[in-house]
Amino acid sequence: MNKISKKIFASIFLCISFSVFSQNSELENEDNIIENPDFFAEETEQTQNQEQEIQTHITISHSSEILTLNPHLSSYSSEAQILINIYEGLFSYNPKTCEPDFAIAKDYKISRDKKRWTFILREDAKFCDGKTITSNDVKNSWINLLKNKNAPYSSLFDIIEGAKEFRTGKSTSQEVSIYTPDEKTLSVHLVSPASYLPRLLCMPAFSVVSETPGIFSGPFYISMFTPTELELLKNPHYYDSENIKLQSASFLLTENAEDNAFFFNTALSEWITGPVNYSKIIDENSKHISVQFGTEYLSFKIYDETDSDKTSGFNIWNKKEFRQALLESCPWDKMRENVFVKASTFVYPVKNYPQVQGYDYTDLIQGKRLMSEARKKYNIPEEQTLNLSIALSEFQEEKAQTLKDAWKELGVDVNFIQTSDLSQITSSNADMFFYSWIGDFTDPLTFLELYKKDSSLNISGWSNAEFEEKLKEANLYTDENREKLLSEAEQILLDDAMILPIQHPVSLNIINLNKVKGWYTNPFNIHPLKSVYIQKIPKTYPGLVKK
């Protein structure tokens, strides 16, 4: 799941023009029906039987935005849709709700203090080569995740005793509290209670990864991978293999919106997850738009003022007072024009999560006053122009121009730094950046982790002692007190004027649900293929009468 999505944000509109790349994959056309005198009679006689037939292969038009299929390193939602099918952990996403279903684990127990979890593994859990999956395989996978300095989600395991110290190079793996009493039992000792642990363990990052390259733990395995196509075959050793109807799946990797529309309209693909010319899809009922458990926003970056490469001993936008002046003057209504679901806060609202005061009111007079006070406090002349740079892609230029025009009133000159991926954001000298975050488990922590001081997901450089204390205290509770403390932590983040929330993103899928079964809209836009099957729709011939 992971994932399931992290990339430079681009607003999704129905009329958007997607970037076009060449599509090199060659597709085989479906067999042509040869018309003959006997065919029509045979067709009409067998219609009832055909209604029960299923197709064992699915073709998916998918984004080519795949940097890695290593679950420890992946962070893109386009990768997550593939990873959930070839890797599996103790739990997997329920296709309808994305809540955890048992996977390699078949049971678990929690100690009275809620800090010791014991998982019991399936006896029939196996890799695709037939090798039995043991508790040591799970432990080794998690240890390898923690020791990989480039693993984006590793800090989510800081809840395990000794994990943070090992991850940051302050201890050895032997001090991480993950134990294997026997081949089918795994015991984990936590720093504090974590009722969300099963949800967390659905993510591909925490799946079981074989020490042998090319061996997979999920319901499918990769049989072929080229720049334009990826082929999956069913894992015959998967514990639930007999209930998986699909034998294979093809992912056509392309950013060509025109090709994808053509493939779907001509039945060369059954499902589009990537770019598509929306207006050219013939079947209106196949268009499915749903809100995702995520937020698209702008974030400031905080620099170490002792780093001469980044600053000259003083960085204006490190100071809360200047940031607050900008947010008071932000033209929120214009920034949120033409979006599906406006977002005034950071965390996507979840059940029992208290309301947080966000940003939806523009007050230029107050913004100018705050800016004037900030200049006086830090001895910056009123006439001095303040420079601010924003890292963005071509999709965000319009919104960035809106900010440039608005903040000019405060004596701020905004310039743009073109970026195309996450690594360019972190390496640039930009003061702000556009970002899109899709949560990987239904908990506010999946958002707040991005601003936790020692988090592997924190690329902003921001830290706040009071914020950290709220998160730490929240871990002590499993009731409504936890949500209350997490909402207070979010309020600290918002009041510190670190982020400009814009919208909750939506997912767009083109799929005929009269034909494709076991596929459901859900908050993560994650769709396990092990639950999917394709029902063959009988061909009909108007005007023919069965005798």
Account of the protein in words:
The structure is a single chain. Helix content is 24%, strand content 20%. By secondary structure, the protein is an alpha+beta fold. The longest helix has 16 residues, at 480-495.
Write the layout of secondary structure elements.
Blueprint: E1 5-7, H1 37-45, H2 47-50, E2 54-55, E3 57-62, H3 77-86, E4 91-93, E5 100-102, E6 105-110, E7 116-121, H4 135-147, H5 163-167, E8 178-182, E9 185-189, H6 197-200, E10 220-225, E11 229-234, E12 248-253, H7 257-265, E13 271-272, E14 287-291, E15 294-300, H8 320-329, H9 332-335, E16 341-342, H10 364-377, E17 386-392, H11 397-407, E18 412-418, H12 422-427, E19 432-438, H13 445-448, H14 465-474, H15 480-495, E20 499-504, E21 506-511, E22 516-517, E23 533-535
Parallel strand pairs: 3-12, 3-13, 17-18, 17-19
Antiparallel strand pairs: 1-19, 2-23, 4-5, 6-7, 7-9, 8-9, 10-11, 11-12, 13-21, 14-21, 15-19, 15-20, 16-20, 22-23
- The geometry reads as globular
- Helical content class: 10-25%
Q: How many DSSP H or I helices?
A: 15
**Strand residues, percent:** 15-25%
* Largest sheet data: 7 strands, mixed
Radius of gyration: 26 Å
Span between N and C termini? 53 Å
Would you tell me the overall average pLDDT? 87
Task: Please state the structural category.
Answer: alpha+beta
Give the uncertain stretches in residue-range form: 1-51, 308-312, 541-547
Number of strands: 23
